[in-house]
Amino acid sequence: MGIAIQALDGVYGRPAAGVRTRVERMKADRWGDGLQGETDRNGGVLTWRAVEFDAGLYRIVLETDSYFAGLGHYAAYPEVTVVFRIQRPSDTYSLQITLSPYSHSASFSSVE
């Protein structure tokens, strides 16, 4: 159960530590309040691994503007948003995302 996230810094080739993140669920055609977090030194948000997420549509938002500004870069994408579905709440889901000031790449999968 839960979501395992790993954010990688594509500029420096290391975990993206200190990125403010949030996960939100779609309810009644609008994004609801969700969980807030910040990536640790390994680029993950460990507390989300223990959360049991119901089936539904979710999004994770990574606040890249402040992260890259802290490294002396201008970010073309102030936020990076990944929208995904959880079908089986008993599964653990994995999001791996590589961030750079002008691009990002994401992979989302179920880890049974």
Number of strands: 9
Topology as a string of helices (H) and strands (E)? EEEEEEHEEE
CATH class: Mainly Beta
* Major sheet summary line: 5 strands, antiparallel
CATH homologous superfamily assignment: Transthyretin/hydroxyisourate hydrolase domain
Outline, from the CA principal axes? globular
Q: Please identify, by name, the CATH architecture.
A: Sandwich
First CA to last CA: what distance?
A: 9 Å
**Count of separate DSSP helical elements:** 1
Tally of domains: 1
Question: What Rg is obtained from the alpha carbons, in whole angstroms?
Answer: 14 Å
Q: Provide mean pLDDT, rounded.
A: 94
Query: What fraction of residues sit in β-strands?
Result: over 45%
How are the elements arranged and paired?
Blueprint (H helix, E strand, L loop, with lengths): L2 E7 L4 E2 L4 E8 L2 E2 L3 E4 L17 E8 H7 L8 E8 L5 E9 L2 E9 L1
Task: Give a verbal description of the structure.
This protein is mainly β and 112 residues long. It has one domain (3-111): Sandwich (Immunoglobulin-like), CATH 2.60.40.180. The chain is 6% helix and 51% strand. The protein contains one helix and nine strands. The protein has one helix at 64-70; strands at residues 3-9, 14-15, 20-27, 30-31, 35-38, 56-63, 79-86, 92-100, 103-111. The strands form two sheets. Strands 3, 4, 5, 6 and 7 form a five-stranded antiparallel beta sheet that branches. Strand 3 (20-27) and strand 4 (30-31) form a beta hairpin. The longest helix is centred in the middle third of the chain and has 7 residues, at 64-70. This is Transthyretin/hydroxyisourate hydrolase domain-containing protein. Residues 1-112 form the Transthyretin/hydroxyisourate hydrolase domain. One of its GO terms (biological process) is purine nucleobase metabolic process. It comes from Planobispora longispora. It holds the Pfam family Transthyretin.
